[in-house]
Description:
This protein has helices at 5-18, 36-40, 43-49, 54-79, 88-112, 124-141, 143-148, 156-159, 175-190, 193-200, 206-226, 241-251, 255-272, 280-297, 303-319, 323-333, 344-378, 383-399, 401-410. By secondary structure, the chain is mostly helical. Helix 1 (5-18) packs antiparallel against helix 4 (54-79) and helix 11 packs antiparallel against helix 12. The model is unreliable at 333-346 (pLDDT under 50).
Amino acid sequence: MTIPLDTKTAVLREFYQTAEKEGWSFNGNGPDEKDRELLVQFHYVTEEYRKVKPVYREIINDITRQMGDGMADYCKRAADGKAGVDSVKDYDLYCYYVAGLVGNGLTRLFVESGLANPALNQRLHLQTSMGLFLQKTNIIRDVREDWDDKRRFWPREIWSKYVEDFDDLFRPENREAALNCSSDMVLNSLNHADECLFYLAGLKEQSVFNFAAIPQSMAIATLALVFRNPDIFQKNIKITKGSACQVMLESTQNLQKVCEVFTRFVRKIHKKNTPKDPNFLKISIACGKVEQFVESIFPSQDPQALQRAAEAAPQLAKKVEDPAAIKAREEEKWDLSEPPGTNLAGKLILTSGVVYMMIAVMGTMFVLSCVMIGLAWLFGARFDVAVDQLTQRFSSQADTAPAQTLVNKYDQREL
């Protein structure tokens, strides 16, 4: 930073006035400053600015004044040795000055030109969330680049829960703590997602919708990329060009397509979430909150199909037989209180049941007999000898039968 503090704060606080001066420009910054070319040739901006309708210039002027005061305050904090952001409240205020005010100003311009629902002007939190969601996502993604440039935007209130010093987040031995800290930052940003979708629902004109929807869809895609990604502490990462093109095409159609984009990337975040993370439950709830909002405006079940099914239900009921009649018929069919043979159940018991049981018993006995005979044969049983012995026994009984008859005839049973 090459501009003295006094000069910088004065320019910032008066910028909303000097921007209307014809031919105004500024060349007091160093040759390597990123915005030097814009400030040196700022007279082109003022020339175009004066062509804008007075009602629009009034809105731009008011937003520029608030933003200049906010930036001057943070420059003074940095000069006083209070570099970085301490609390989450300060973090939100910083993001409001650099991005939330942009959302406020654009909303007022959209409503004034009839391109948005006037009710958006009464919903300041929705306007602010549009800017904060973008800015917080960029701060998470650019953490390594900011650290290299000696800038620190992650609030102490968050990172101090995981490490003692902010620089410790970039040490390999603190990788798990750094990932948990980054997930806490993602959670802080994700809490604005559903309000961004709510805001987009109030935009009427397609080009305005595209202008607002594309950055939001890119932000949720980036948030899914950086979530629990250790690369953010090593280098600046971005979504691929192919993914960016796909997201842009989907986001220039309608709100339902944008909601589908949000749902897809929210589910990626939920899939990468881990119970080891101390923010596991809160992140799951935040993801569910987004999906619940999408479901409330675009139900997954078609209401018209449900209505048609409800209307067809009475007609379908007429075609279906009374369940009580079916039950009574079945009970009568299987009534076993009468003697067998007097009803269908008795006949089945006398015929099918008994016959099947006899066949099963006889079949089992036959199979067991065959198995036993086979085993005996395998172990060397001589069935031919057994047959010969049985034949001789029956023959000897036949030969002695006449003699036994005579003995019985003359036997007086006396000594």
